[in-house]
Every structure is written in C-alpha cells, then in structure tokens.
Amino acid sequence: MKIIDKETIESILKYDKLIEALREIFQSSFTMPVRHHHFYQNAEGIENTLILMPSWTDNYIGIKQVVVAPENHRKNLPAIHALYTLLDAVTGKPLAQMDAAGLTSRRTACTSALAASYLARDDSKILLIVGGGKVAQHLVQAHSAVRAYDQILIWTRSESKGGDLVLNLQQAGFRNVVYADKLEEAVRRADVISCATLSHEPLINGEWIKAGTHLDLIGSHTPKTREVDDSAILKSSIFVDSRAGALHETGELAIPIATGVLDPASIKGDIKELCCGEIMGRSSSDEITLFKSAGLAIEDLAAALLVYRNVGEEMTSV
C-alpha cells in the first residue's frame, strides 16, 4: 500500500487535470452513500465529530475519514484532520493512503470551477474571491483554468490576510490579482463571485448582484450558516453539487427552504446532470446563476485516483 504525503499530492493535482478528472467521474457510473456523522466525547469532555465519506466505482473504493476537533486551536493544531484510503473494489486490497487536507481543498475549488464552466458567461472578465482560507487559496487557479479573467479581486475580513494572499498569488504569476477593500463595490463589478468563508450571517446582498453574474458558494457548510441573503436566492437559477447534501446540510438553502422563501422543486439541477448534458446550464446572458457546493465523496475519489495513477514508483510502500 502506498503512503502518499501532502507534498506529493499537491505536485500531482494540477488544476486543469483535476477539473477534467472530476468531469469524467461525474459522467461515469458510481455509488455514493450519504456521509456518516458520528459525534463523540473526547477525554477532555469536548464533543468532536467523526465524518466518514465513502464512494465507489466498479474498480475502486474510496473512504475519507475526517475528525473535526473544534478546540484544537488551543493546542495550535488545525481543527480538521483527515485521511483518505483507496482500495481495489474487486479484491478489497488497500492500494493507498494519503493526506486528505490538500486533496479536499483542491477538489473543492476545482468542482466550483467545473460548475462555472457550464454556468458562468463565456465573456466573464472580473472574478471576485470572498474569503482567505485554505480553499480560497486555490480558487483563483481553479477558476482561471476555465475562464480568462482580466482582473481578479480578493476580499477578506482581515485586510492583512487578504494582502498576504494577493502577494502570494502575484508571486505565483497572477499579476491581475488585486485586493478589494469594499465588498459591495467589488460585488457590483464582478461577473463571477466565489465565496469560501465561515460566515454565520449573509455577506452578500442580492441587490448588489448585477444581471448575468454567476455565484459560487462554498462556505456555509452547516444548517445555520450562510453567505448570501434571501434576495440573492430569489433572483438566482440554483444548481447544486447534490440535492441530498446541499438542500439539507447547508444553511444557504436549508434556511430559505424552512422559511418558505425557496421551493426545493425549483432547483434546476446538479453537477452530474450538468456534466452529462441532461440539463441546460446558463440559458441567457442576463440570467443570474448560483452553484451551491456541500462537498461530495465522489470528488475525493476522482482526486485520489488522479494522484494514485500518477504517483511515482519511488513512493513508500508498506
């Protein structure tokens, strides 16, 4: 069994390659049970969460194992630790185990870019990234793989954090990246808005969003958090990564559904239906489109297979 570290994973998962790997797996036949959540008390009396995310094809099984430990910040540790295990579906033989942090961040950003390839206008020129966390750091590269942007705006609550992200991106070759100090002004200008924050309250007012904009919402991963308000939901054609996850696990959609603002039947479709051509994406240049991502186990499998198939023979085996 190969043991694959974070550095190797990041060297293999090129954004354009991963976007196409995701498109291909969504076009294929696969099984993806609902993720498992288990809550437990640790030795310190704190409630942690164990999340298991399985998926499989005829040839491969993948399982992501995630532990969310909210008090880890007191120990100067990340709140989330994750591993990914890849197995042969025919024999059950373990093939690889890999660090899942970089795997998750990149597949999340690339799934958003994949959706934008169907939902954002072809002539989109200004991209706005809202947030400065781990996923946000990959969104510029991922979205730039499917659209050629003249300008990329970064907005974060912390100007210093946003400035550091801008500098890092500029040093990586993205000379068209600038910091936006006023969120409303940036939203009004943007053609594509990609949000990856932990905000509990809406950051974006629907009144700010111009016709033809594409909204890509990655944050609000709990039923009580959201990144845009009801007016943004009402004026958008809504697409999701999966109805089972996005409609129930994310406050972005669960809250307006609970209050009667959003009819679940109005959801236009999911990412698999887009990739398979079963539904139309953007229908006009004035349409406001919205893609809500909750994260899918099959996305992890696509990324893990791309790594496994391209990893060198020099990798450690046990």
Q: What key attributes describe this structure?
A:
318 residues; alpha/beta; 8-stranded parallel beta sheet; 14 strands
Concise overview:
By secondary structure, the chain is an alpha/beta fold. The protein is 33% helix and 23% strand. The protein has an 8-stranded parallel sheet with strand order 9-8-7-10-11-14-12-13, with helices on both faces. The protein has a 6-stranded mixed sheet with strand order 1-6-5-4-3-2.
Describe the structure.
There is one protein chain. The chain is α/β, with parallel strands linked by helices. It is built from 11 helices and 14 strands. The strands form 2 sheets. Strands 9-8-7-10-11-14-12-13 form an 8-stranded parallel beta sheet, with helices on both faces. A 6-stranded mixed beta sheet has the order 1-6-5-4-3-2. Strand 7, helix 4 and strand 8 form a beta-alpha-beta unit. Helix 3 crosses helix 11. The mean pLDDT is 94.
Write the layout of secondary structure elements.
Layout: E1 2-4, H1 6-12, H2 15-26, E2 36-41, E3 47-56, E4 60-68, E5 80-88, E6 94-99, H3 101-119, E7 126-130, H4 136-144, E8 151-155, H5 159-171, E9 177-179, H6 183-189, E10 192-195, E11 214-217, H7 230-234, E12 237-240, H8 243-249, H9 251-258, E13 269-270, H10 271-275, E14 289-292, H11 297-310
Parallel strand pairs: 1-6, 7-8, 7-10, 8-9, 10-11, 11-14, 12-13, 12-14
Antiparallel strand pairs: 2-3, 3-4, 4-5, 5-6
